Amino acid sequence: MIFAFKNLTNHVKKKKIRSRWLYISGAIYALSIYLISFSWADLWILPLVFVAHFLAYLIMIPKRRTLFNFFLSQILLIFTLVAIWLLLTDTYLSFLFALVIILWNSKRVLLVILGFIILIWPSGYIIGLATEPFRKQIKEAKGLEKAGLWIGILERTLIYIFVLSGNVMAIAFLITAKTIFRFGEIKDHSRRKEAEYILIGTLFSFSLALLIAYLIKIFI
After folding, report:
1. 165 — phi, psi (to 5°)?
2. Which of 156, 153, 176 is nearest to 164 (CA)?
C-alpha cells in the first residue's frame, strides 16, 4: 500500500474515478486483506475493504494534495482494518470497550488530551490575534505558506511533552535550535521588523505552551 500510494494517486489524479488502476488496486487490496484474515466464510470483508480503499484514494484526488488529506485517507484505511479485526474477534471487542471506558473515566488522560487540543487550535488563534498588529507592519512575507503555523504547533507540542515528562532542560535545546535557524534574519538589519515579529511570536508561543503545560501538570 505504501509503495504504490504515490504512483497510484498520481495516475488516479489524472483520470479520477475513470482510472482502471483505482479499481484493480482496490480489488487486489481487498482480496489480500480477505485472504490474510483467514476468515474466508466472511465475504463481507471484500466489499468493505474495497469501498474503504476507493474512498481513501478519492480523498487524494483533489488538485492540491495536502498532509491532512494524506493522513485522513490512511486513518480511514486503518480504521477499516481495526473494525474488521474487532468484528472477527468478539473476545477483544469487550476488552476494547472496557479500555475505552477506563480511559474516558481517567481524569489524567482527559486532561492531557485537553492540553494537546488547546495547544493545537485555540493557542494558535490567540497568538495570531496578539501578533496581528505587528504582522501588518511587514510589507512582504517571504516564508513558506502556513510554515509559521506548523512550526508553532510543533514547538508548543514539544514543550508540552517535555514539561509533562519532566525534561524541562530539553526546552533550552529547542530554543537554541530555533535561534540558530533564525540567526540570518536576526543578523540582517534590513529584515529587522520580520525578525522582531518572529521573536514576539516565538515568545508568545513558548509562554503559552509553558503556561498550559504547567497548569495541566498541576491538576494531574
Report:
1. -90, -5
2. 156
- Alpha-carbon distance of 133 to 147, in angstroms, equals 19
The grid coordinates of residue 42 equal 466472511
Give the pTM: 0.61
Cβ-contact 158, 220 below 8 angstroms: no
Q: Where do the structural domains in the chain lie, given as residue ranges?
A: 2-99, 107-219
| Calpha distance 53→46 (Å, rounded) | 11
Report the distance separating Cα 79 and Cα 102, nearest Å: 21
pLDDT tens profile 163-206? 999 988 888 888 887 777 666 655 666 667 777 888 888 889 99
Q: What's the distance, Cα to Cα, between the start and end of the chain in Å? A: 40
For CA atoms 172, 158, 199, 195, the dihedral sign is positive
Buried residues in 77-89 as b, exposed as e (16+ CB within 10 A): beebeeebeeeee
